[in-house]
Design goal:
Layout: E1 2-9, H1 15-31, E2 36-43, E3 48-55, H2 58-75, E4 85-90
């Protein structure tokens, strides 16, 4: 598995609107990509959102960057401050708590 993490600094008070737009239009696009596993968006503090994209392979994850970058430019660029901080790499430890019936 391969993960891409982005930290976005946002214009004051715009986190709820960015989250709504992500949920409504970016997530459905990501679901259609080969190798897509998970997407998370979380509150990283005042006017900061952090996203995590998980794919089966580095190739698939890096290919998703083009879609994500275009989506950001077309949907939330006016709500961000500067370029996001980006980290990416192979997932080396993972665990999921089993669901209890």
């Amino acid at each position: 598995m391969f993960a891409i993490v982005r930290k976005f600094n946002l214009r004051r008070g715009s986190a709820p609107e960015v989250a709504r737009r992500v949920n409504d239009s970016l997530v459905p696009l990501l679901r259609q990509l080969p190798g897509f596993r998970n997407y998370y968006l979380f509150d990283g503090g005042p006017d900061v959102l952090v996203s995590i994209r998980i794919f089966d392979s580095a190739e698939q994850a890096l290919a998703s960057n083009e879609l994500a970058s275009a989506w950001i430019r077309n949907n939330v660029l006016e709500l961000t401050k500067g370029m996001p901080e980006v980290m990416a790499g192979n997932v080396i430890v993972t665990d999921v708590k089993p669901q209890m019936p």
